[in-house]
Specification:
Blueprint lengths: L5 E4 L3 E4 L3 H7 L2 H4 L21 H21 L6 H12 L22 H15 L5 H8 L5 H7 L5 H14 L8 H7 E4 L2 E5 L3 H19 L2 H22 L8 H8 L4 H6 L1 H7 L4 H11 L5 H11 L5 E5 L5 H15 L3 H4 L4 E7 L10 E3 L5 E3 H4 L3 H6 L3 E8 L6
Parallel strand pairs: 4-7
Antiparallel strand pairs: 1-2, 3-4, 5-9, 6-9, 7-8
Helix pairs in contact: 3-4, 3-8, 4-6, 4-7, 5-6, 8-10, 11-16
């Protein structure tokens, strides 16, 4: 069987699968599941073109990693064929631990389990199935390999993951402000004392990259309507979990049922292999299928929320510089309760509040280092003569509260 396939990607054109092992990983059911998980969760309710999946993103990131490693080799950075393939596998599988709707339900279906932890567990399971052939990839993914720059390419503030998702999300959403010069950035990458750096002449491309990331967060990832939709989805899941634990019979897939009947945390994944096997069966379709059925459930709160989301009757959301006061929240909950003829406690299912944060660059975490012509290495925030980058190191925090649109304040 010919496993040196070519994939036609709408962002980069033709992408080559470089080895039989990589083909077999892509062909594995764990990876094929990513075709059924949207890259941007419910963003399609705001940007109709945002239908791309985690599968698209993983393949695109693998392609950019291949280009990056070839460029570093051209600059005489020592990268063996084994390290090359392992790094491609590490970036290919970096998001394998995402569940349905990606970040939206990361802490609703599971109990305080980050997708990175699940990616690590799934890569370990795949390594067993592939008889240890992913061991080096796992080392690089975990940051345990002695060539630190390989891990930095997989996970840092200027990693290949971010280069692809900004370019891809901008393309599919149609938000041109998110466009970045990924090719230029890749050409400017280098290795100094074993760590990833950017050549000084690439500093303006880094400024554009950070600016694009900041704009994409406000305009796309933290878009008001998108946030409102996510909070509705979380309310649906929480209500369904509560009803299930009370003994109510809700129709859903068998794999999904486990995560409604039990509180699943990282300990359960470690102790019970079946938990992981059920998790890797889940995708967006499990949730959408359940929501369509629950829209006719006898529980008013569950059915109403499902009907609203299916009809795109999203929560109204208000963004402000200060959190909602206790008095305002009480008044709003009273109005919701009166409108739907439910108790104030039940009204909380139709209300959500919290904070949104946007920090394009964290100068204290895995800094982007600039290599000057005289051989000195400095954090980009200090190397830049532009106030823009320095401003992006500050965390911008805003507060939101949302409620049904048919209830006016």
């Amino acid at each position: 069987m010919n496993k040196r396939k070519i994939i036609n990607d709408p962002v980069y054109g033709f992408i080559t699968i470089r080895s039989e092992l990589i083909f077999d990983i892509i062909d594995h059911p764990y990876f094929q599941r990513l075709r059924r998980i949207k890259q941007m969760g419910l963003a399609e309710l705001v940007y109709p073109g945002a239908h791309h999946t985690r599968f698209h993103h993983a393949i695109g990131a693998m392609h950019l990693m291949s280009v990056t490693l070839e460029n570093l080799r051209y600059k005489e950075v020592d990268i063996t064929d084994e390290e090359f393939e392992a790094t491609l596998i590490a970036i290919l599988l970096h998001d394998i631990g995402h569940g349905p709707f990606s970040h939206a339900l990361e802490f609703s279906l599971l109990k305080n389990v980050h997708h990175e932890h699940l990616s690590r567990i799934i890569i370990s399971r795949l390594n067993q199935q592939f008889e240890g052939k992913l061991s080096l990839a796992l080392e690089i993914f975990n940051g345990n390999y002695h060539k630190k720059f390989l891990h930095q390419l997989v996970s840092s503030q200027l990693d290949i993951d971010r280069l692809d998702y900004l370019k891809r999300d901008s393309f599919f959403s149609g938000v041109s402000e998110g466009t970045i010069g990924a090719d230029r950035i890749i050409k400017m990458l280098a290795v100094h004392d074993g760590e990833l750096v950017v050549e000084e002449k690439g500093i303006y491309s880094i400024e554009n990259f950070l600016s694009a990331r900041r704009l994409m967060y406000w305009q796309v990832y933290l878009h008001k309507a998108g946030v409102g939709a996510e909070k509705m989805l979380i309310s649906i899941i929480n209500r369904a979990k509560k009803l299930t634990k009370k003994g109510n019979s809700l129709t859903m897939s068998d794999s999904l049922r486990m995560f409604f009947e039990e509180e699943i945390g990282i300990e359960q994944f470690a102790e019970n292999p079946n938990v992981l096997e059920e998790f890797v069966q889940l995708d967006d379709y499990d949730i959408w299928g359940a929501i369509k059925i629950w829209a006719k459930h006898e529980d008013f709160i569950l059915s109403k929320l499902c009907q609203m989301l299916l009809a795109r009757k999203l929560f109204r959301i208000k963004i402000s510089n200060e959190p909602i006061s206790k008095e305002q929240k009480k008044v709003l909950l009273e109005k919701i309760a009166a409108h739907y003829d439910i108790t104030e406690k039940e009204a909380k299912n139709f209300f959500s509040s919290g904070q949104l944060t946007n920090n394009a660059y964290q100068s204290t975490d895995k800094e982007i280092m600039i290599l000057s012509k005289d051989g000195k290495v400095r954090d980009v925030a200090k190397a830049a003569d532009l106030p823009n980058i320095k401003a992006m190191t500050k965390v911008v925090r805003k507060y939101y509260h949302c409620w049904p649109k048919d209830i006016s304040l």
